[in-house]
Amino acid sequence: MELCEEEEADAELQTELQTLSRGLEQRLTELELRNILGGENDGRNAIAMIHSGAGGTESADWAGMLFRMYQRWAENRGYEVNVLDMQPGDEGGVKSVTFEVLGDYAYGYLKAEMGVHRLVRISPYDANKRRHTSFASVFVYPEVDDEIVVDINEADLRIETYRAQGAGGQHINTTDSAVRITHLPSGIVVQCQNERSQHKNRATAMKVLRARLYEREQEAKEAARDKLNEQKQEIAWGSQIRSYVLHPYQLVKDHRTEHETGNAQGVLEGDIDAFIEQALLQKVV
Fold this sequence. Notes:
Helix content: 25-40%
Low-confidence stretches: 168-172
Oligomer: single chain
Number of domains: 3
Number of helices: 7
CATH topology of the largest domain: Alpha-Beta Plaits
Distance between the termini: 36 Å
């Protein structure tokens, strides 16, 4: 940049260097964001839900505006949006909408949008042209496979054989046909002695172990989902993460990061990257 400070610096060169500088700065920000988006689910597709708050048509219209905002944002990034479920409002907008966003790091970015969004404007549904405040909630899940694959490492198993006890004929007590398997990482112990063959007992014990581990993974999955649900906030005053003011002035402000812009219409057209970046960089999500 020293070249730009010289008294007789070429104007074209200054413009070129400034453009290069902005490009490098943007690239550094992108690399920093990718470094932050290192969570287990950050690289996945996203499933998003928008629910209108109390307020009837006004809130339903606001929820519809938010949905359109995210559609525009996704299109600008080259993501695909598919509506999974939609409950239309009585006179317009949507009461709720669930949609998936398909693209690299869709969840990692959209998780920054979770929370209550507040709109202040002159209502188009009010004949007296009064100012109204509306709320809508946004919640985002990572898209995960329904089927959990149970991968068992043989090194994690302690397999013991012993002489079976109980009914089973004269052969059952003469060989070490019973099998006990301990899964060391989880501490789960399974055993089988019903078959005369050690091979069959081992296969049955492994089947039981897989079922136990599958159930354990399902419980962990549900616990993680419950933790995400705990982040939901009441759709009301005082709980909003961002305010969109269209009257008496234009301002969109994120209450977590204090980032704001006067280009409210641009934001509603999907220009929300700066808000997402600030939330991620400041690690408020």
